[in-house]
Amino acid sequence: AQKITQTQPGMFVQEKEAVTLDCTYDTSDQSYGLFWYKQPSSGEMIFLIYQGSYDEQNATEGRYSLNFQKARKSANLVISASQLGDSAMYFCAMREWGGGTSYGKLTFGQGTILTVHP
Amino acid sequence: DVKVTQSSRYLVKRTGEKVFLECVQDMDHENMFWYRQDPGLGLRLIYFSYDVKMKEKGDIPEGYSVSREKKERFSLILESASTNQTSMYLCASSDNYEQYFGPGTRLTVT
Questions:
Q1: Chain B interface residues facing chain A, Cβ-Cβ under 8 Å?
Q2: Above 70 in pLDDT, residue A99?
Q3: CA nearest neighbour of A7 among A94, A101, A76
Q4: Could you read off the pLDDT of A34-66 as tens digits, one per residue?
Q5: Across the interface, do A108 and B42 touch by the CB < 8 Å criterion?
Q6: How far is it, in rounded angstroms, from Cα B72 to Cα A18?
Q7: Are A104 and B43 a contacting pair at CB < 8 A?
Q8: What are B76-106's pLDDT values in tens digits?
């Protein structure tokens, strides 16, 4: 079963508008973490934001915020005031502890390609 | 500044060749990972290592092996390259929180 699902293969947004990238996850663990990474066309993976399963507040980092809805098992990324440089592939990922150490292992979704139009 | 480096950005090999992909990190992390990235499939874990000489299979280990003789270096080995191993390969290291990625190696097997 797919543990991380990103249902939007591609998204388009106008510069300066906000955009939401969807991510749903599946886990039976109580302790887990959710990550978003950005991958520009150059290929490097850039860490954007993290949400722990016990965090009560939604995570925010500058123009990035994570809309965490635990009961619905969703962790959507919201980018406010989109910029041309936001055009990239975005990956949602999850780390589970399963009662032991995770070694930092992540499970990734399929990714969403975001294109920002001027 | 944290750094993960990979030996090549682009590599072209022939079917049946033995291929070595090298990854080095300078953050003294215990955990290191090899992924392959294919369109529509995201990143899939091939192998990871949680200590020197320790390794565990990921989700798609078939056709690959790994070596970790020193803490900073984690190598991915394709014993006999095949065309279905044409892909982008990403190495990462982790401090049990965030993963730090290398720039990737785009491998083409002809």
A1: 31, 33, 35, 40-45, 48, 50, 56, 88, 90, 92, 94-104, 106
A2: no
A3: A76
A4: 999 999 998 889 999 999 999 989 999 999 999
A5: yes
A6: 40
A7: no
A8: 999 999 999 999 999 999 887 788 999 999 9
DSSP A58-79: PPEETTEEEEEETTTTEEEEEE
* Three state DSSP letters for chain B: CCCEEECCCEEEECCCCCEEEEEEECCCCCEEEEEEEECCCEEEEEEEEEECCEEEECCCCCCEEEEEEECCEEEEEECCCCHHHCEEEEEEEECCCCEEECCCEEEEEC
Q: Please check whether residue A60 is in contact with residue A77, taking contact to mean a CB–CB distance below 8 angstroms.
A: no
**Residue B17 C-alpha, separation from nearest chain A C-alpha, in angstroms:** 25
User: Chain A residues with CB inside 8 Å of B41's CB?
Assistant: 110
Mean pLDDT of B57-78: 96
Residue A109 contacts residue B42 (beta carbons within 8 Å): yes
